Amino acid sequence: MIGHGDVSVVHLAAIEKLGADLVGVSDSATDHRVVLDELRPDVVHICTPHDRHVPIAVDALERGVHVLLEKPVAHTVEEAERLVAAAKDFPHLNVGVCLQNRYNATSQKAREILKNHDGVRGASATVIWHRTREYYEAKPWRGDKSRSGGGVLINQAIHTIDLLQWLLGDVEAVSGHAARYGYPGVDVEDTADLLMHHAGGARSVLFATVANVVDSPVTIEIVTDDATLRIRGDLTVTHRDGRTDVTAEHRNTTGGRDYWGASHELLIADFYRTVEAGEPFWIGPAEAVKAQYVIHEIYRRNA
Ligand SMILES: NC(=O)c1ccc[n+]([C@@H]2O[C@H](COP(=O)([O-])OP(=O)(O)OC[C@H]3O[C@@H](n4cnc5c(N)ncnc54)[C@H](O)[C@@H]3O)[C@@H](O)[C@H]2O)c1
What is the mean pLDDT of each run of 10 residues along the chain (303 residues)? Predict the structure, then answer.
């Protein structure tokens, strides 16, 4: 594991649960190339700030190491594209990106309902969270656009944007705003609104902020011709005749923060399964960069 900060605890817990051999944990005091050369791991988990994802991932691929990377792919789309290209150069190595909310019970159920459904009309979503000034002061890269790439969109709402595009279809056009209202001295947006047009004709809207006073549950409401799907913790599907079905979400047992959800461990286990089976992993850089293109377009429009 490279990068031993906040999120690494969830990766360590998942590795332990899997029974995989943890051969080393390193942080910024050690050059990652020395670590990779000396320890020769099969898999590297990259849990560093956004601008350090791709350089470390490319060095790992060049050494024959499978890569499991925290989101986003990179702090810029240009850098993300560098990893998309590198992953193609090493097709026998897996590169996975931790968009773990695709493994939520609610997301999986919604996907099952919506896949091949031709009556999906649209969705609305909210990410209304709370980040303190200390959150940025403790880890200054988070509030430094040159290192993080941005704020609430690329760091927090990326999961929900990814789910909307995965559930409703690729995003063909997006408009919106990103603004900094609450955190003087921080160089990234804390609040944003988006309107997305998806392939197939569905439309979605999203509001995201980290300036709320608490971490409210993420909400996603999807409207189809015959039902409304509401995710807020659990998923409730209300059919046109009034019947409802509820899918309960997995409970968080990984020791991570509640708003990270409970699915890191599922994604990590699935990644290792594919490595062992010699199968490709489905959330690689080319898949994960889709949400980043949406975010990049908002930043470009608001530059
Ligand atoms: N999937 C999720 O839900 C989720 C949740 C939280 C964080 N994250 C992601 O995890 C990553 C890390 O976030 P965090 O909150 O743990 O950050 P953090 O600042 O707490 O930890 C990052 C660690 O990386 C180390 N580091 C920096 N440069 C390094 C280098 N060149 N080599 C080795 N180590 C280096 C830092 O010293 C620090 O300990 C980010 O990409 C973030 O977006 C994902």
Answer: 96 95 96 97 98 98 98 98 98 98 97 92 98 94 97 98 98 97 90 97 98 96 97 96 95 67 91 98 98 98 88
Dihedral over Cα of 142, 144, 150, 151: its sign: positive
From 2, 10, 48, 102, mutation site for ligand 1 pocket: most ligand atoms within 8 A of C-beta: 48
Distance CA 216, CA 95 (A): 32
Q: Which two tokens stand for residue 61?
A: 């691929």
The dihedrals phi and psi of 16, each to the nearest 5 degrees, come to -65, -45
pLDDT at 253: 64
Spatial CB neighbours of 273, under 8 Å, sequence gap ≥ 6? 279
What tokens were used for 290?
A: 């889709």
* Residue 29: HSE in the Cβ half-sphere, 13 Å Cα cutoff: 4
Cβ(263)–Cβ(101) under 8 Å?
yes
What's the pLDDT score for residue 183?
82
Instruction: Match 């690729």 to its residue by tokens.
Output: 170
**Which of 2, 35, 39, 70 for a ligand 1 pocket mutation test, highest count of atoms within 8 Å of Cβ?**
70
The helix or strand, by DSSP H or E, that contains position 238, with its residue range, turns out to be strand 234-239
Q: How high is the pLDDT of residue 255?
A: 61
